[in-house]
UniProtKB/TrEMBL annotation:
<comment type="similarity">
    <text>Belongs to the universal ribosomal protein uS19 family.</text>
</comment>
<keyword id="KW-0699">rRNA-binding</keyword>
<dbReference type="InterPro" id="IPR002222">
    <property type="entry name" value="Ribosomal_uS19"/>
</dbReference>
<dbReference type="Pfam" id="PF00203">
    <property type="entry name" value="Ribosomal_S19"/>
</dbReference>
<keyword id="KW-0689">Ribosomal protein</keyword>
<keyword id="KW-0687">Ribonucleoprotein</keyword>
<dbReference type="InterPro" id="IPR023575">
    <property type="entry name" value="Ribosomal_uS19_SF"/>
</dbReference>
<protein>
    <recommendedName>
        <fullName>Small ribosomal subunit protein uS19</fullName>
    </recommendedName>
</protein>
<dbReference type="GO" id="GO:0005840">
    <property type="term" value="C:ribosome"/>
</dbReference>
<dbReference type="InterPro" id="IPR005732">
    <property type="entry name" value="Ribosomal_uS19_bac-type"/>
</dbReference>
<comment type="function">
    <text>Protein S19 forms a complex with S13 that binds strongly to the 16S ribosomal RNA.</text>
</comment>
<dbReference type="InterPro" id="IPR020934">
    <property type="entry name" value="Ribosomal_uS19_CS"/>
</dbReference>
<keyword id="KW-0694">RNA-binding</keyword>
Length: 95
């Protein structure tokens, strides 16, 4: 379900503070965050966030195309290992 337009986009307050201090310092360091639910704002363009996926922090470099999306969309939580060869053999035998 989408968020109401009159409420505006959701961003954790501490994430805004970290982004402002990082932009003010001029250093390009990774901002670690667990807030996958936060919306990417225009102030975040050019910054690198380390978004936690439940196992490790994945670096996400924010570009203009990402504005309006959530941080969690760019840090997948599951790894697809592919289909096993056994499944393909079973399909051929039953066909």
């Amino acid at each position: 379900m989408a968020r109401s337009v009159w409420k505006g986009p959701f961003v954790d307050g501490y994430l805004l503070k970290k982004a402002e201090t990082s932009r003010g310092s001029g250093r390009n360091e990774v901002i670690k965050t667990w807030s996958r639910r936060s919306t990417i704002l225009p102030q975040f363009v050019g910054l690198t966030f380390g978004v936690y996926n439940g196992h490790k922090f994945l670096p996400v470099l924010v570009t203009e195309n990402m504005i309006g999306h959530k941080l969690g969309e760019f840090s997948p939580t599951r790894t697809f290992t592919g289909h096993t060869a056994v499944d393909k053999k079973v399909k051929k035998a039953s066909a």
